[in-house]
Amino acid sequence: MKRKIDPTLFELCLGIFLYGIIFEMVLLFFSTEISYSLGLWIGVILAMAGSVHMWWSLNRGLDMPEKDAVKSMGVNNIIRYLVLVIVMAVLIYTEFANPIFTFCGYMGMKLSAYFNPLIHKVCGGKVHKQPDDVV
User: Fold this and answer.
1) What gap in Å lies between CA 130 and CA 16, rounded to an integer?
2) CB 35 within 8 A of CB 15
3) Do residues 94 and 35 make contact, with C-beta atoms less than 8 angstroms apart?
4) Which residue from 21, 61, 108, 122 puts its CA 20 to 30 A from 70's CA?
5) What is the pTM of this model?
6) Hey, where are the domains in the chain?
């Protein structure tokens, strides 16, 4: 059975990826340091994974009673930020990639969320009207 990806999640991940490409082009214009690019793409991958995890935990939380949903969402938020902190600590300790550019890549999630209406329009998304009798 085929599962259809949520269009909003797809558009958010697309925006994160496009942000990564644009940021990489600007980054390569100023520097060819490989650790900068590695850090950026680690951040982009973390942002995409965080977006998918957020979507999954929200969907799961909406099917729970209020008390359980609050607890579940809190735990899932902590997990997301704990993964980010652990990855950043490993990058700082190993100097494998630049942690500042990892953070910049992760911020692609925020920028993509702000530009989501534009991405939705470019992807040819339809605007759903609310019925007139809804208050």
Assistant:
1) 29
2) no
3) no
4) 108
5) 0.82
6) 7-122
